[in-house]
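A protein record pairs a chain with a discrete description of its three-dimensional fold. The following entry can be read in just this way:
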Amino acid sequence: MSSLSEDTINSWLDPKGPVALVLKQHLTPVEGEDAVFFPPTYAGIGYNIDTLSDGTKVATIDSVGAQANRAEPVFGSDPELAGLVPQVSIDIGNGQSISLLEAGHRLGDAIVRSSELKGDAQAAFVEFMQVGDATKLAKLGPTSLVFGAWDSRDTQAKLPRLVQSVIRAWDVDVLTRSAQYVPAIDYSKLEVFSEEEKEKSEGNTKSPLAQRGFVAVPATGAHGGVVARGPIVRDVTMNLVALRRLHATTDADKLRRYVLGLCLVAATEPLDGFLRQGCLLVPKTQQPAGWEQVARTGERTPVGLTNEVARGLAAKWAADFGVGAPRPVKFSKDLAKADLADKDASKGKAKAKKVG
């Protein structure tokens, strides 16, 4: 494996350098091979499983968005990393606050538009759109550059993801499970309700008695997880082309290196394999993962990228760039209501235009 030299690092910022850094990590359930584990369920479809032309079933185990939302909070929870990004918190009252690192749409989130942060976020997006300068974004919410953001409800600014990862399981068999609930006692014998009411309600999940747990109810055909006959793979990609397209009126190199450092940390952080109940995955030791840089020609070269190295580089580049100041701001109910009113007005205009 090649060493991570200064020349290698510089090549990632060179317009003619590699297009991406990639990692393919094989995972396995903690219970071992052929164990049952549970993908996420989605409204209307259950598990997200695609069937390829050859009949192979591929299940999404953790989506790109879910992976980003798992990785981003580490810049607030890890003391060593917290100093790499501005700590922005939104006071929602009653002693509660929300970190910007926990907002699903980052700087494009409704919580931002409903707070004192709105004007600064809008100005940062506008500057990025009009002159291509990402400095204000990096000073205010740099993880919006790392994991991407779309200010779809306001300026329409789009920030592409520089780091993305996804977990898929290949060649899966889908299982179902059933259960039978039996109440602790026969409430009809205690005259809580009649025997006739009991007979009508048992097995009827819509019955109030069943919903409150007073009668026996079967649960059949529920999601029972999957078994992967093929590999479970986490694919991580760092888009160096998109990184190099970040511009700044001054100190563009410092900006790119700062964002690169955050990307390296986010991409190399060890996987927290507890994705949900019934889905605890760990790296497969028989197939150790290694980072590769991919050239424009498609040539792949191993690189000695580790989380320790990434943290060191990120700290150095953050100090050179100058991390944005921490920002405690307040939630504004009035701004939230105004945002809703703007949305309603936009709908009205759209309908009027369509009718006309």
Q: What stands out?
A: Residues 347-356 have pLDDT under 50 and may be disordered. Residues 333-355 form the longest helix (23 residues). The radius of gyration is 25 Å.
